[in-house]
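As a warm-up, study this chain.
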Amino acid sequence: MADDLKRVVAWKNLPMNGTDYCALWHTAKGWLLKGTAVGVLKDQRPMLANYEVHCDENWLTHRVQVERTIGKDTKTLSLTVENSGLWCCSGQDVAEVRGCLDVDLSVTPATNTLPIRRLDLGIGKSESVTAAWIKFPELELQPLSQLYTRTAENIYRYESHTGFSAEIMVDDLGLVTSYPRGWERMAAF
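Now compare it with the structure written out below.
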């Protein structure tokens, strides 16, 4: 099977006064989210972040590659995930996120697609997940408890243990079209 580009999306990043360009690919091994986020940090420094999230056919995260650049400071994070939920960075076990099935990159709404597609909730149904949360600009990795509730055909209520919640609207592929106080879709094809 040749790689098949399913959709390209451009989002406006409201908290970082920036943008995010993301392509969703169906590959021979499953799914790939590949994108670039550009924004301004709270201290007014511009930041560039490139990301790739590789998933299997069931939307389980298997590999994550992130590169963040602020001026001449570049940081990378490479993670692999085994089916057992064992996360590794440079061959070392990352115990704090062991058992997580999804990754959540704080610079993009693209990773909300993973649990939305994987869970395939019926309308009115909810499910809790714990994601491996990568916080920017530090590329700090920690678990993040989340609750997804499907309230309509293309609307999900997202809640995290941080106290944040939002009504997320998605398209037919599970990619965000509206994420109040977070991201707004500017274009897609």
